[in-house]
Write a structure and sequence with these properties.
Layout: H1 10-32, E1 39-44, E2 47-48, E3 58-59, E4 61-70, E5 72-73, E6 77-79, E7 82-85, E8 93-95, E9 98-105, E10 108-111, E11 114-120, E12 123-126, E13 129-135, E14 138-141, E15 144-147, E16 150-157, E17 160-162, E18 165-171, E19 174-176, E20 179-185, E21 188-190, E22 193-194, E23 197-199, E24 202-205, E25 209-211, E26 214-217, E27 221-229, E28 233-241, E29 245-254, E30 261-275, E31 278-290, E32 297-310, E33 314-328, H2 333-337, E34 343-347, E35 351-366
Parallel strand pairs: 1-4, 3-5, 4-6, 4-7, 6-8, 7-9, 8-10, 9-11, 10-12, 11-13, 12-14, 13-15, 14-16, 15-17, 16-18, 17-19, 18-20, 19-21, 20-22, 20-23, 21-24, 23-25, 24-26
Antiparallel strand pairs: 1-2, 27-28, 27-35, 28-29, 29-30, 30-31, 31-32, 32-33, 33-35, 34-35
Signal peptide: 1-30
Keywords: Signal
Organism: Pseudobacter ginsenosidimutans
Length: 368
């Protein structure tokens, strides 16, 4: 009597067959039932408990190893790669790569790469990008957030935020909006109406309070100026800002030492009108002097000075400065420039730091 041997590879095949049978059985049952309710489990469309009827189903819970498709989700939806929901989602969606919602999302969307929804009322969190037609919630992304309409309460991205109306934008490089409350950008902020402040290297708006080195404001001021200080450093600068705050970006040179040193300066300040032709200025400035050889010289300054306007465009100003310096000892740059410290000490073996009182004066010409 011959006996057949069935031992090799059978367990794995049996499991696979059982899983597929269950999914197909569930698919047939789901198609014969109402498109609403229940649990949706599968591998990828249409291999799931809802089969080809998945796109018309409304689910309380969904779980797919690769990608799931549905009309609406009222609970949580999990997919190893992507969730595709043609209608609305009121629960949370979790996907290894992306979530796509055609209608309204009132829960949370979490994806390794991207989230897209028609109207986001909850929170979108993505490793790369969030996009929506409008948002009333929060968008957090590693690279960019985009909302065609309202940007909601808060947008934070490593590189770029874009929205029509938004309360707060925070990015590592650029923010773009129309009507915003506050923008905080590492390099550039662009908006139409700003109710609060813009903080960045360059700020562009029609209104608001800019805090940066270059500020282009429709209802603001712009001027060019030339200054000289107690070290003999001459700097030509561009001053720009709003009704109160302004920024200065300038460059120049110092010929006091045996070798010419080039200067680069940035300042943020505020002016306070006293009368039609007289106002007070306060500035926080940072400057570096360098001959592009060994050694460095850094100075931070607090300046307080009055300005007197002559005519409509010319202004003269002068006043005291309170300075902190940090420089390389071996190069001799600091010793040649500053010799009247209020306080000084060595900072390590190669550098020295100190504080002293100085002065600044100059003229400016109003451009706008």
């Amino acid at each position: 009597m011959m006996v057949s041997n069935y031992t090799t590879g059978i367990p794995g095949r049996k499991v696979a067959c059982i899983v597929l049978s269950l999914l197909m059985t569930g698919s047939v049952q789901a198609q014969s039932q109402n498109s609403k309710g229940g649990v949706h489990i599968g591998l990828i469309y249409p291999i799931s408990t809802h089969g080809t009827n998945a796109a018309a189903s409304t689910n309380n819970f969904s779980f797919h190893l690769l990608a799931g498709v549905s009309k609406n989700e009222t609970g949580a939806a999990f997919s190893g790669f992507s969730n595709v929901i043609f209608g609305n989602a009121s629960g949370a969606q979790f996907a290894g790569f992306s979530n796509h919602i055609g209608g309204q999302s009132s829960g949370a969307q979490l994806a390794g790469f991207m989230n897209f929804t028609g109207e986001a009322r909850g929170t979108q969190l993505a490793g790369f990008m969030n996009a929506s037609k409008s948002s009333t919630g929060i968008q957090l992304a590693g690279f960019a957030n985009y909302s065609k309409g309202s940007g909601g309460k808060f947008q934070a991205a490593g590189y770029l935020n874009m929205a029509k109306d938004v309360k707060l934008q925070l990015s590592g490089f650029m923010n773009i909006g129309q009507d915003v409350n506050t923008q905080l950008g590492g390099f550039l902020n662009i908006a139409r109406n700003v109710k609060g402040v813009q903080i960045g290297f360059i700020n562009i708006a029609e209104s608001g309070t800019p805090i940066g080195l270059v500020n282009i404001v429709k209802n603001g001021e712009m001027a060019v100026r030339v200054t000289v200080d107690e070290l003999g450093t001459v700097i030509g600068g561009f001053r720009s800002g709003g009704k109160r705050m302004y920024g200065v970006l300038g460059a120049g040179y110092n010929g006091k030492t045996s070798k010419t040193m080039y200067a680069l300066e940035g300042a943020i300040g505020a002016h306070f009108p006293v009368s039609e032709y007289f106002r007070m200025y306060t500035e926080l400035a940072s400057a570096t002097l360098d001959d592009f050889k060994k050694g460095d010289f850094f100075r931070g300054s607090l300046r307080v000075f009055p300005g007197f306007r002559i005519g409509n465009q010319l202004e003269i100003f002068a006043g005291p400065t309170f300075n902190y310096v940090y420089f390389d000892i071996a190069s001799g740059k600091g010793v040649d420039l500053v010799n009247h410290f209020m306080w000084s000490e060595k900072a390590g073996d190669e550098h020295q730091q100190g504080m002293y009182i100085g002065a600044i004066g100059g003229i400016s010409w109003k451009l706008k």
